[in-house]
Amino acid sequence: MFAVTMAVVPYKDETSSKKEQVADMFDNISRRYDFLNHFLSLGIDVSWRKKAIKMLAPHKPKVILDIATGTGDFALQAMSLNP
């Protein structure tokens, strides 16, 4: 018995590499990402960010590092804390 390995790619009919296809896919959805996130989560993502900011406020953070948080919604809201 043997196993056949097939790469899972966003666009199966494209000849570009998987890395290039994934980059293209994210470029294609980036304009609608925030809308889809708000819509698909029924707005819960907004309340999570507000709650996180409220929990951070008493600590008066001087520095906030935003790593891989999507389009930066959290970082923009965190600016209200004047880090």
Which helices and strands occur, and which strands form pairs?
Layout: H1 18-29, H2 33-40, H3 44-56, H4 73-78
Q: Which properties best describe this structure?
A:
mainly alpha; 83 residues; 0% strand; 47% helix; 4 helices
Describe the structure.
The model has no long low-confidence stretch (mean pLDDT 87). The chain is elongated and about 60 Å long. It has 4 helices and no strands. The chain starts with 17 loop residues before the first helix and ends in a 5-residue tail after the last helix. Helices cover 47% and strands 0% of the residues. The protein has 83 residues and is mainly α.
What is the first-to-last residue Cα distance? 59 Å
For the sheet with most strands, the description reads: none
Contiguous low-pLDDT stretches (5 residues minimum) are none
How would you spell out the order of helices and strands? HHHH
Task: Give a brief rundown of this model.
The protein is mainly α and 83 residues long. The protein is 47% helix and 0% strand.
